[in-house]
UniProtKB/TrEMBL annotation:
PANTHER family for the chain: ENTEROCHELIN ESTERASE-RELATED (PTHR48098), IRON(III) ENTEROBACTIN ESTERASE (PTHR48098:SF3)
Protein name: Esterase family protein
InterPro entries associated with the record: AB_hydrolase_fold, ABHD18, Mycobacterial_A85_antigen
Top-level division of the source organism's lineage: Bacteria
Amino acid sequence: MTEQYHRWHSPNLNLDLEMLVFGDRGYPVILFPTTKGRFHQNKDFGLIDCVKWFVDEGLVKIYCPDTIDGRSWYDKGIHPADRARNYAWYDKMLTDELIPWAQHETGVGRVAVAGCSFGGYHAANFAFKHPEKVAHLFTMGGAFDIKMFTDGHHDDNVYYNNPVDFVPGSNNEWLWRMNIILGTSEHDMCKGYNITMSNILKAKNINHWLDIRPDANHDWPIWKEMFPHYLSTIK
């Protein structure tokens, strides 16, 4: 399995970011780390190894970027408005820098996005905001309500980066063309968030699969079972 390391200066964030890329061809999958995880976390915890066959067969090319959790939602040292504003710039980085990079390298117009735990939030938020850029969304133990990080503050950056707020009112036709899988488990602390998100999608008649696995917790073993299964749905 080929592995490439990239470091670049993001003009949107005015920060240096790092990323690992696995594979040399195939459908582009943007895979986010969990809370405050770095670009190498999904490799370190075995999530990349569990889909090695897909990478080696040239079916997928996986991009594992950094996030800025410590400078956005998890930075308790700044005002919630600044947390939300910083995250809005991260979303712009994805839109203007990372997605075009993956599209150019693979020749694919609409990418896949995925993530476990808080990585599932990153994936879902981007997919639901920009469905014209995303054909497949795979979340594993994700949570989708960001208000727990905003201390009661509300503004447009909070609203438009909080899927449970903005998805009900969205009429972007591409939402109905997306392959959406919300993966959770019976003992997952984020199970309720997944049921809520599923109900929002049901109310809009958006096709999706709420995958609740039995006898499993919010942890890597079940996510490593889910991820290969979900990648197999990419057509």
